[in-house]
């Protein structure tokens, strides 16, 4: 009887312990599931769609015509309200983006009551501002009649709060006050690349600088595709969305149409700039990283030719591709402002790379990582050639200097021997 009692006690005890463990596991699973649901909800809010515009800062509106109409993504947006509402929602946005908020009064003073205009884009006017801290910034103000700009405002604040790379334009603040929605960027001294390609007041960009700019842009896109978590698709790469700093380093701008790759990438309406749009995206309504690769390929040809798609760029490219055998043919599309000052081997390599990027089948296009490696190799080989050329020139100059010194010594020796000969002749007896 005693043995039975102890067995019963042990059995009950084990049963209770197992029950407690199962209950704890169930509670843990419920909490874990709720936490994942919150993360997915937060990600959906961050990645809400914004229709992309045609022009960037300091862009000429005749250079790029964006599609129109309101996009209706299949993924439902969790938060339909504007992110600049005051109260708890605003605090939540600030905590997510990490971007400082500026007062309208301070920006009004910094821009001399919004009179220091830098340019005009689809989002609205852009002003140069001198902040009280001594910092110079670019202030982009949402036009009051711009519906798509409100969504772009939301996307740029949230996305650029977590994207940081030397080849991306930095968002340093925003303002949502008195019915105004304003984005504040690091000031890029030399404006947009488009203004240097198409505005006669600027000196033509030399060949080496164009290749360096292409590499900068490629590195920025590679970071978006492979460095950002989750990856980001820019969706509007073109010369007017590339800004140049004081040293002519390039940075990718305008993230209003950008989306995180984790979002359903199907849209009922097409968004982007005509001429730069991936034809596979146009036909399938599905955009991927390779859609950015296509736009980058068009952008590369734009750099080479000094001509944009609205000026028949791709028609010239296709004609040149027919005749591009060996390392000849691509010179037909080169920007005449270069006046022939470019390297034929580099032209062939970069044009061939750009042509791979614009393949109509996305799976045959290279990744941005492959593009960066190819452009880096071209730039590295250029530097090696220049270094060898300088070394050869230095050796040649040294040899010429040595020959000159030896020649002088030989001349002195000859003169000395001639003098000795004359002296010896004078010592001969008279006949």
Automatic annotation (TrEMBL):
SMART domains: S_TKc. GO terms for molecular function: ATP binding; protein kinase activity. This is Protein kinase superfamily protein. The gene is PKSP-2. Residues 390-431 are annotated as: Disordered. The chain crosses the membrane at residues 6-30. It holds the Pfam family PK_Tyr_Ser-Thr. Coiled coil: none annotated. PANTHER family: CALCIUM_CALMODULIN-REGULATED RECEPTOR-LIKE KINASE 1 ISOFORM X1, OS01G0750732 PROTEIN. It comes from the Eukaryota. Keywords: ATP-binding, Kinase, Membrane, Nucleotide-binding, Transferase, Transmembrane, Transmembrane helix. The keyword Hydrolase does not apply. Gene3D superfamilies: Phosphorylase Kinase, domain 1, Transferase(Phosphotransferase) domain 1. Residues 112-378 form the Protein kinase domain.
């Amino acid at each position: 009887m005693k043995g039975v009692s102890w067995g019963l006690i042990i059995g009950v005890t084990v049963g209770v312990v197992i029950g407690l463990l199962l209950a704890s596991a169930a509670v843990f699973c419920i909490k874990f599931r709720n936490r994942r649901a919150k993360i997915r909800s937060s990600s959906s809010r961050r990645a809400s769609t914004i229709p992309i515009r045609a022009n960037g800062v300091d862009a000429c509106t005749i250079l790029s015509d964006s599609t129109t109409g309101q996009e209706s993504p299949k993924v439902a947006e969790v938060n339909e309200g504007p992110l600049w509402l005051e109260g708890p929602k605003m605090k939540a946005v600030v905590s997510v983006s990490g971007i400082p908020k500026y007062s309208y009064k301070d920006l009004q003073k910094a821009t001399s009551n919004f009179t220091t205009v830098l340019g005009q884009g689809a989002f609205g006017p852009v002003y140069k501002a001198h902040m009280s801290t001594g910092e110079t910034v670019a202030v982009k103000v949402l036009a009051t009649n711009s519906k798509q700009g409100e969504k772009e405002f939301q996307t740029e604040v949230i996305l650029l709060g977590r994207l940081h790379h030397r080849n991306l334009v930095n968002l340093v603040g925003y303002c949502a006050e008195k019915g105004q929605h304003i984005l504040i960027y690091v000031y890029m001294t030399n404006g947009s690349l488009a203004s240097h390609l198409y505005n006669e007041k600027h000196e033509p960009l030399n060949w080496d600088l164009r290749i360096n700019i292409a590499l900068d842009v490629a590195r920025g896109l590679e970071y978006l595709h492979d460095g950002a978590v989750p990856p980001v698709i820019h969706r509007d790469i073109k010369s007017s969305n590339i800004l140049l700093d004081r040293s002519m380093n390039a940075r990718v701008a305008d993230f209003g149409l950008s989306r995180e790759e984790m979002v359903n990438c199907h849209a009922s309406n097409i968004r982007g700039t005509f001429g730069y749009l991936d034809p596979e995206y146009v036909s399938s309504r599905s955009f991927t990283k390779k859609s950015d690769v296509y736009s980058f390929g068009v952008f590369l040809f734009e750099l080479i030719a000094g001509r944009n798609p609205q000026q028949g760029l791709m028609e010239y490219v296709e004609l040149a591709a027919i005749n591009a055998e060996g390392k000849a043919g691509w010179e037909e599309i080169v920007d005449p402002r270069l006046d022939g000052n470019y390297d034929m081997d580099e032209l062939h390599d970069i044009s061939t790379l750009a042509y791979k990027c614009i393949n109509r089948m996305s799976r045959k296009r290279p990744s941005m990582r492959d593009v960066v490696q190819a452009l880096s190799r071209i730039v590295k080989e250029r530097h090696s050639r220049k270094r060898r050329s300088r070394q050869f020139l230095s050796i040649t100059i040294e040899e010429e200097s040595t020959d000159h010194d030896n020649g002088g010594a030989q001349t002195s020796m000859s003169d000395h021997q001639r003098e000795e000969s004359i002296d010896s002749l004078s010592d001969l007896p008279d006949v």
